Amino acid sequence: MEFGQTEAFLLLCRYAFLLVGGFILAGAAMGYYALLVFVSAFCSLAVIHSADWQQVHKWAFFFQMTWQTLCHLWLHYKEYYLQETACPRFSITLSALMLMTQKVTSLALDIHERKVRVWLPDAEKDALRWHLPQALPFCTYLLSFPTLLGGPLCSFNRFQTWIKYSRRTSSSQCSLWAATQKGLGALMVSLLKNIVRGYICSQADLTDCIHFGCIYVMWTSALFLRLSYYSNWMVDESLFLAAGLGLKLDCDHCVGTADGVLMDTDIWTLETTNTIAVFTRTWNKSTAQWLRRLIFQRSKSHPLMATFAFSAWWHGLHPGQVFGFLCWAVMVEADYRFHRFFSSVAKSQPQKLVYQSLTWCHTQLVVAYIIIAVEMRSFSILWWLSFSYNSFFPVVYVISLLFLAKKRVISSTDPHLHTS
């Protein structure tokens, strides 16, 4: 066997290893519910293979979101109509389907933008000639075990590049070092989460608090949920990096930096920012970029509201999610205008310090309000949030949005502004 053929064979073996690992992980984590994920992956590939490249993103989006929505509606039926607790394996399956939607729509957009070619050059007009060596990378991209249950979203082209070159010894050393760093970070965050859960907050007190005590309970409960997200993301990223994905290939200085992929975890920015807009862009970075590309940049009217409305749909359309994401959209719009106006008012250094401190506190409490609504999902939590002192903080932003919007309209129609 020649050297080139050996390399090609080893590459196919690596794809097959990642794909088989995905099948095993799906079966172990989801049981027979894994069939829902397999149907999603293989039917999406059939749609991508059969559709015209100019329309492939629309057909792939339609099929994937229809399939995912049907699965979410089954969960609604179980929880709200039958009053049954959801099976943990089914919840894991829904999470995997959401990640599958990201990869399918990202791949379809790449094909639509001619960044990825589905067919071999000599078979572009012959849809039947889609051989196994060509189909295997697409299947592996959708079902590989490092990205099946988590991990940042990456493009198909970059996934192929990493699979091809991450076998190098230097890259393997860097991958293990970066994965170890992420794993240790996840352990530390998990310990902090347990401390918060055991000694600082108790989510059982959410509906038992009164008056200003509800603000403390809401913030600490949201802090626990944020730490849970951080630890889960870091574990996902650790597996992602250990598989040789995400690192720079020229590993002269073994640092855990990503080349062309956004790692989802940026705890420092999330916990120190005083603007909701920055928090929104930083929270789950790769998903934020995916939503921007899929919805925001393609919406002709009200792109911000369309993006958050789609996010509520993608998450499952539970009552708290619909309320929370629409509230989030309003808060981001108000945040832009609020900071544009008040940052120009604060001139001196003490004024800026007070402004940044107050806006940081307000951002923390508004974010906590949204997280509790989205994560708890139920009508009872929405009722509690709406009639507790916690509603004061988003209401401040709603009032400022109305006031600043009116002020902007008056200013734009002031004849004195248009005189030379």
Automatic annotation (TrEMBL):
InterPro entries: LPLAT_7/PORCN-like, MBOAT_fam. Pfam families: MBOAT. It is a multi-pass membrane protein. This is Ghrelin O-acyltransferase. Keywords: Acyltransferase, Endoplasmic reticulum, Membrane, Transferase, Transmembrane, Transmembrane helix. The keyword Cell inner membrane does not apply. It is found in: Endoplasmic reticulum membrane. It comes from Phrynosoma platyrhinos (Desert horned lizard).
